[in-house]
Amino acid sequence: MAGVALALLLAPSPAYAHLGHCSNAEAASTIGVSLVLAVLLFRPWKKVSTMSAKITRLALPAVLAIAVTATGCGGSKSSTSTAKHPQSPVRIQITQPTPNQVTGNNVTLVVNLIGGTVVPAAQTTVKGTVPTTQGHIHVSLDGRLVNMAYSTTQQLPPEQLTPGQHTVTAEFVAVDHVPFANRPTAAVIFTVQ
Fold first, then answer.
1. pLDDT band with cut points at 50, 70 and 90 for residue 190
2. How far is it, in rounded angstroms, from Cα 184 to Cα 173?
3. 32-70 burial, b for 16+ CB within 10 Å, e for fewer?
4. N or C: which end of the chain has fewer CB within 10 A?
5. Residue 70 is inside which H or E element, if any?
6. What CATH fold (topology level) applies to the domain 85-192?
7. 60 by DSSP, 3-state: which?
């Protein structure tokens, strides 16, 4: 049981948390993790009395790994997550924190949208043409999404602002949270004392 838990912790996340169309790397990691788990479960190295039992113990891990991969990676591509959005004329700037600013762990992010507006959380569906000047702001801290903001001002999570250098990134996305083709983005590096 500990081996299964360790394999799940060490495995790339696509191997156990992804359904739908997979890239080659995701499919390879999924089949690899599935094969390891199947081998641990069926233990083909154990001695058995008949030849058919031996073949079964050898073949079952491979069959199970292929079945898991086909099931997890065999779905069709989702139209919402892969839909190509048009380019947006909007530009985004981070006005606070400023580049190379030294702060405490209480940091307010302030962005300036040029040519666009942030819409309320209730507006997350697109009917017809995607509006290119309306959307939301996705905020990442050190490469991890921390907020899908519906305003141009917000607090960064203080528990994630440990002493040292940090990068905050703000991206203007469509009302349905799908990025625009040109991905209007701004980033600032700052230091927390």
1. very high
2. 8
3. bbbbbbbbeebebeeeeeeeeeeeebeeebeebbeebbe
4. N
5. helix 51-73
6. Immunoglobulin-like (2.60.40)
7. helix
Q: At what angle do helices 51-73 and 24-42 cross, to 10 degrees?
A: 150
CB pairs under 8 A, 24+ apart, for 61-66? 61/35, 62/35, 62/38, 64/34, 64/35, 64/38, 65/31, 65/32, 65/34, 65/35, 65/38, 66/31
Tell me what percent of the residues of the chain surpass a pLDDT of 70: 74
Place of tokens 């909007």: 90
Residue 4 phi/psi, 5-degree rounding, is: -65, -45
Domain boundaries for CATH 2.60.40.10 within the chain? 85-192
Tokens of 47: 């001695």
The single-letter DSSP state of residue 138 is E
**In which band, very low, low, confident or very high, does the pLDDT at 59 lie, cut at 50, 70 and 90?**
confident
| Mean pLDDT for the stretch of residues 24-47 | 72
Q: How confident is the model at residue 132 (pLDDT cuts 50, 70, 90)?
A: very high
Position 18 scores a pLDDT of: 37
Q: What is the pLDDT of residue 23?
A: 63
Long-range contacts of 58-65 (CB under 8 A, 24+ apart): 61/35, 62/35, 62/38, 64/34, 64/35, 64/38, 65/31, 65/32, 65/34, 65/35, 65/38
